[in-house]
Amino acid sequence: xxxxxxxVAASATVPAVRQVTSCTVEEPYTLKWKVLNRxxxxxxxxxxxxxxVGSTSPNTRVEDSDFKGQHVVECYVVKDGxxxxxxxxxxxxxxxxxxxxxxx
Length: 104
Fold this sequence. Notes:
Elements: E1 6-10, E2 16-23, E3 30-36, H1 40-44, E4 49-54, E5 60-63, E6 69-79, E7 82-94, E8 97-98
Antiparallel strand pairs: 1-2, 2-5, 3-4, 3-6, 6-7, 7-8
């Protein structure tokens, strides 16, 4: 049996859209997201974050990009209370504009 996989991509728009582009897990499942703000600005504002949150719409997490930094987004596919797949993407932001770093 092959390992379950999930792939996430980020838009270069503001607000930034993180979306699952493929998932081999059979539905139903739940998506959970962790957004880590990194860098001096996140530390100065005490906004490093890291809480695990739900989707804002099916297969999607939308957030405003408030400041520059090397941010990270992780997506967890949860089925029957167990994380069965996950993906992580780097989201570098400069001048309050998200720039997707490409596939992980």
